[in-house]
Design a protein that fits this description.
globular; about 325 residues; about 0% strand; mainly alpha; about 30% helix
Length: about 325
């Protein structure tokens, strides 16, 4: 055999290693949601799509991903398994419980693509189980259910106003490991058309006389969320608070009222196209899921709030009561 047909042993090993890594990447990328993509823009997310800033922000941080074909599918409904995967990427919470009957749910087969995210989302207190040790991974979530999941996992409850003061109260930042110890943080703020911010302007509740909101200056550091205590009336219930804020508050399921009120107080709820219409029972889309998770991360002090090109916050300020 001539020398031109000989390949050094190290060269053979390199080719074999390259093939092995490539094949592994192909197998990983064949699964939905967990496909490792670093892109922050997607061909099916138009520049004027209302949730694009949220999608772009979290995609840059590796918290949400697209599909192997490069799409994000922002209007596609989110199932419980997919939301578990998003939660796992977004929040680094301590385990507070174990799966009830052993190491797995009866309807989550071993090797299932979301097996680990489901287990972690349950054990950290976000997701719940169903009778018979079922998780129901392919069951879609409604918007109200998603807010319950987030508030439960973040241990957040509605705080009734009890005093007639006008002092700002600072909500302490969560003592959590920053999400970006596990992924790269994008340092540049997003810039997008001012027109996109108009439909997200602060909404004034109907129960109290309001003072004009001051212009928000560009945030330079991640700060805790601030709220304002009630001026009148005091000790308002969660449902009354929601009725003052949403036109369809009476459609919120009874078992979600506290959590939706807590999320509204914390400036986590994002509604489109009408900020006063919650649509609590509509199926949660991937675009809406990204917006809610983004705002929850802002509330936890893990990322900065979005701003438009003029430095105005894209999201409404915390609702005044």
């Amino acid at each position: 055999m001539t020398n031109r047909w000989r390949m050094p042993l190290m060269g053979v090993a390199f080719v074999a290693l390259t093939f092995s890594v490539g094949a592994s990447g192909f197998l990983a990328n064949s699964q939905p949601v967990v496909a490792q993509q670093t892109q922050s823009t997607f061909p099916d997310v138009p520049p004027d799509y209302w949730a694009r800033p949220f999608i772009q922000s979290l995609a840059e941080k590796g918290i949400v991903t697209g599909y192997p074909d490069g799409t994000f599918r922002p209007r596609q409904a989110v199932d419980r398994d997919e939301f578990s995967a998003m939660i796992r990427q977004a929040f680094n919470r301590a385990r507070i419980r174990n799966i009830p009957s052993g190491s797995a749910f009866s309807d989550v087969p071993q090797g299932y693509w979301a097996e680990t995210p489901i287990q972690e989302a349950y054990e950290t207190g976000f997701m719940n189980e169903f009778p018979g040790n079922e998780f129901r991974p392919k069951q879609p979530l409604t918007k109200a259910q998603a807010l319950v999941v987030l508030m439960r996992g973040l241990n957040m409850n509605y705080n009734r106003p009890v005093a007639s003061t006008n002092q700002a109260v600072t909500t302490p930042a969560a003592s959590q490991t920053p999400v970006n110890q596990r992924r790269r943080m994008a340092r540049n703020r997003l810039a997008f058309p001012l027109a996109g911010t108009l439909m997200m302007q602060p909404l004034l509740p109907l129960i109290a006389k309001q003072q004009p909101a001051s212009a928000s200056a560009p945030a330079k550091t991640v700060r805790p969320t601030t709220t304002t205590t009630a001026t009148a009336p005091s000790n308002i219930s969660a449902l009354e608070f929601l009725r003052s804020y949403y036109q369809d508050a009476d459609r919120i399921p009874e078992n979600a009222i506290n959590e939706v009120a807590a999320a509204t107080q914390a400036n986590i709820v994002v509604n489109y196209p009408n900020p006063r219409v919650l649509n609590p029972n509509e199926l949660l889309s991937r675009g809406s899921a990204t917006a809610l998770i983004h705002q929850a991360l802002v509330n936890q002090g893990q990322i900065e709030p979005l701003q438009d090109q003029n430095g105005v916050r894209y999201i409404p300020n915390s609702p005044r009561r």
